[in-house]
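Q: Please design a sequence for this.
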């Protein structure tokens, strides 16, 4: 039975919530952290598994693992620097369901021995890679759960772009993929999800939060909110301040909301370039591509693309038309759905209840005039969508 792997592989984006008192890179995070209390709270807040740092460099110990085990039935991942079979035996006896194996610290023969012994003990492993070479090693070891860490454990620097590209290489691989480090917002979690991660591991963002469990709920909450039709810097800033996760820039000919280019967005949000008919490289995180329809600015349907990969369906209304079955059509669409079509502060809550979309998208009903946003409406839309 693979409790840990199966929990991570469940539909949707899973989260491993981490308990750690300090970090070598950031210093003290939460010196008084109570692992039993936090583990129970994280499980109740939606974590599919809980990670416990048992290494003294992180202010942890095996007693923390035992305390967490006494407080929750959720799968527990023990994290530390484990290189010997005895390390794994101690973790098993303390209540771990899985143990971290850092490929940085062990060669392939040692890693294979540890994975094999863990199996004999009845615990699983999360095999962690940081670069392309380590990723190749993890695949060759036939690791069932592979963690891709954005943080270089030597320099402590985070490179999320490189991490996401490594994850994307494994998109169609049978291993369960966990994106580790650097997730502080809904959009960053979604970026890992769209690259192909089954789960994210969140540590420092939770440990720094006033209410760690509430912060976890926020990062995992859906729908994501996209404010589209942005043409001005001040409107981008207003959408970010309001809490929008995605910022959309329409680059299609003939649109009254056509932007001159994809404007810069903070690295904790996602930019989306919107095209009709043919997409072009625009420097955005994602592309939203509509079909072309004669006599109209766009067709009805669109897809959301990460590179060449379709990652969500955009269910919209026909250009300048209504459809009384719009919500039913969206609710019946399989996979990730971004709901669009004249959404605004007054109707988005009902839309979310009816469709349960992965994301909602609004443009025209958040404006003072085409291409110029009404900041009060933007704030109200984001708040109602939540």
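A: Design:
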């Amino acid at each position: 039975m693979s409790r840990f792997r199966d929990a991570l592989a469940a539909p949707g984006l899973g989260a491993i919530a981490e308990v750690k008192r300090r970090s070598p890179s950031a210093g003290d995070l939460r010196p008084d952290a109570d692992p039993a209390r936090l583990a129970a709270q994280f499980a109740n807040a939606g974590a599919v598994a809980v990670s416990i740092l048992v290494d003294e460099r992180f202010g942890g110990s095996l007693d923390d693992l035992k305390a967490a085990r006494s407080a929750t039935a959720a799968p527990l991942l023990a994290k530390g620097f484990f290189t010997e079979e005895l390390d794994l035996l101690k973790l098993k006896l303390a209540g771990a369901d899985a143990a971290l194996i850092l490929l940085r610290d062990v060669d392939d023969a040692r890693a294979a021995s540890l994975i094999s012994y863990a199996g004999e003990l009845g615990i699983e492993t999360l095999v962690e890679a940081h670069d392309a070479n380590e990723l190749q090693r993890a695949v060759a070891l036939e690791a069932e759960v592979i963690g891709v860490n954005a943080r270089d454990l030597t320099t402590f620097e985070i490179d999320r772009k490189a991490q996401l590209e490594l994850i994307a290489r494994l998109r169609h691989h049978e291993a369960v993929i966990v994106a580790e480090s650097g997730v502080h917002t809904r959009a960053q979690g979604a970026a890992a999800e769209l690259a192909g991660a089954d789960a994210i591991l969140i540590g420092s963002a939770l440990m720094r939060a006033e209410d760690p469990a509430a912060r976890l709920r926020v990062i995992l909450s859906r729908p994501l909110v996209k404010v589209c039709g942005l043409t001005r810097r001040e409107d981008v800033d207003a959408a970010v301040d309001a809490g929008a996760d995605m910022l959309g820039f329409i680059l299609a000919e003939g649109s009254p909301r056509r932007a001159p280019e994809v404007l810069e967005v903070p690295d904790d949000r996602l930019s989306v370039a919107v095209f009709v008919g043919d997409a072009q490289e625009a420097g955005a995180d994602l592309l939203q591509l509509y079909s072309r329809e004669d006599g109209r600015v766009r067709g009805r349907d669109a897809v959301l693309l990460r590179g060449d990969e379709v990652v969500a369906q955009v269910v919209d209304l026909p250009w300048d038309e209504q459809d009384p079955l719009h919500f039913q059509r969206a609710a019946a669409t399989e996979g990730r759905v971004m709901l669009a079509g004249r959404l605004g502060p007054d109707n988005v809550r009902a839309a979310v209840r009816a469709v349960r979309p992965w994301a909602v998208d609004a443009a025209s009903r958040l404006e003072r005039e085409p291409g110029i946003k009404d900041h009060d409406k933007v704030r109200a839309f984001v708040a109602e969508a939540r």
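Q: Thanks. Anything notable?
A: Residues 224-385 form a domain with the TIM Barrel fold (CATH 3.20.20.70). The longest strand covers residues 270-276.
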